[in-house]
Each structure stands twice: as structure tokens, then as C-alpha cells.
């Protein structure tokens, strides 16, 4: 029995008019309903805890990701941990209170990195818990993707983006439009600019040539992003950052810590990698169940 396209009470679907396929969108063979469309996941606001700290009106330095890890490992690897930041029960950052500033290493797990909508909540919770007097975010940029009317310099510089004009080190170069910052660094700068006190803020972006997987790819293939250690950075880049921090409200790297505790910067990083490897092992085991 032939199908009569005119025997309808409503116009035919657009799919029937523009496609050679005999099946309507969402229908299986012989007009039967096909599988239901995959529904988008409902976002659940993360539970964020900042532990072991009290509000302190001091400059806040947030080192993000592998670049932040490399910088701190080069300049102040023996920092003692004063507090931590938990997101949904997992430690995502270590906090170190020093004589001059509060230093945070924000090293997000692959689970958090894939939840881009959680970044503003993490940034807002961190600033609310610490109430800093100013903010410096240390992150990275990819020189090969940086857009500029000028020729690429022989040595890729540290670039900066500030909320207002500040005295800057001669080795720094401005991070100019149409380039823009994304990720946790962008969330922190946005939260600082949206605060009622107009928090002075600056981003220091170190060049990296290492390719980064897309957050969603890294979440589905976590082993692609796990390394035994972060790639080291060049000493002159760390020196540039240190000189610039001296020009920011009295901070510098390395910084003398106020107290010594058992947990250090490397303790948090080692635990992070152990958790990542454990999650991969559990994921691989569940595939064969």
C-alpha cells in the first residue's frame, strides 16, 4: 500500500520536504516512533567549601592550572598549606597564607574542568571567603593563537590585563583585543569587577606552546590530560612575574610563610594525580562489567 502524502490533517514535516529519506524526523520504520532524543543534563549548583581560613584583607594571588603549578614549584615549592577549597567534596585548590598575601593554587580536576558553568560559583565563593584587598590571577595563553597586528616576537612575553592602569614591568606586554580570557581566570576577573568594592585586579598570562585538550574531550578521555608533573617554565618568565608582583601591593615570589605545617604544595598535587589515576582505573573497570 502506497503512502499518500496528501492524506494528512496537517502540513508534512519539513524533513519530508527537504530530505530524500522516507523516514520522518524522530520516526522509525513504518512510521513508528524512534528512540527518544537525548535530554540535556540539568545543571546543579556545586557545593563549595573553603576550609581552614578566615577573611583577611590582604592581596590575593591565584595561580591556575599547570602553569600556576609550574610557577610555584619553581619559586616557592615548600609553601605550607593553610587551607583548602572543596568542590562537591573534592579538593580543587590549596591555600597558603603568607606574611604579605594569600596564595591559592587552583588546580581543577578533569571533572570540574568539564563543568564550565561551575566556574563563576567557584570564583565568587573564593572571593567571598577571603575578602581580598586586590586580586592577581596567573594563567597561560597560547602565542600561536594570539592575534596581533605586530609580528610575533622572538621570545614570547608575559602578557597582562588589568582593571585599571598600574605600574608594570618593562618586560610585560598588554593582552589586547580581540584576544580574550576564558576559564577560571575569566571567572575570577569577572567576579572581582562585579564586586561592590571594585576590587583592583590583574591577570598575568605566561606563554605556553603545549596543546590543551578541550574540557569536554578531557572529561571523556581523562588519561589524555594526566601527566607525572607539569611542564617546567623558563626562569626568566618567573622572574618577570616576580618583578611585577613587587609593583603590585607589596607582594613577591617567593614569599616567607607565616607558619610551617605538614601539608605542603606538593601534597595537594600528589593527591590530585592519585585521585585522577584512581578515577581512570574505576572507569576502565566499569567498561567491562
3D architecture notes:
Residues 1-41 are annotated as: Disordered. Residues 1-18 have a biased composition (Basic and acidic residues). The chain contains eight helices and nine strands. With 289 residues, the protein is of the alpha/beta class. A hairpin with a 2-residue loop joins β3 and β4 (90-97). α4 packs across α5 (183-194). It is globular and about 50 Å long. Residues 222-229 and 255-261 have low confidence and may be disordered.
User: Looking at the structure, what is the overall shape?
Assistant: globular
Rg result: 24 Å
Largest β sheet strand count, sense and barrel closure: 9 strands, mixed
Order of helices and strands: HEEHEEEHHEEEHEHHH
Poorly predicted runs of 5 or more residues: 222-229, 255-261
Number of helices: 8
How do the strands of the widest beta sheet line up side by side?
A: 1-3-4-5-2-6-9-7-8
CATH architecture title: 3-Layer(aba) Sandwich
Quick one: how many beta strands? 9
| Terminal CA distance | 46 Å
CATH fold title: Rossmann fold
The proportion of residues forming helix, as a percent range, comes to: 25-40%
The helix-and-strand class reads: alpha/beta
State mean pLDDT (0 to 100 scale).
77
Integer tally of domains? 1
Strand fraction: 15-25%
Q: CATH top level?
A: Alpha Beta
Topology:
Elements (H helix, E strand, L loop, with lengths): L13 H5 L29 E4 L7 E6 H11 L7 E5 L2 E8 L4 E5 L3 H4 L5 H12 L3 E8 L17 E4 L10 E2 L8 H12 L6 E7 L7 H6 L14 H13 L17 H22 L3
Helix pairs in contact: 4-5
Features:
alpha/beta, 289 residues, Rossmann fold, Proteasome assembly chaperone 1, 8 helices, nine-stranded mixed sheet
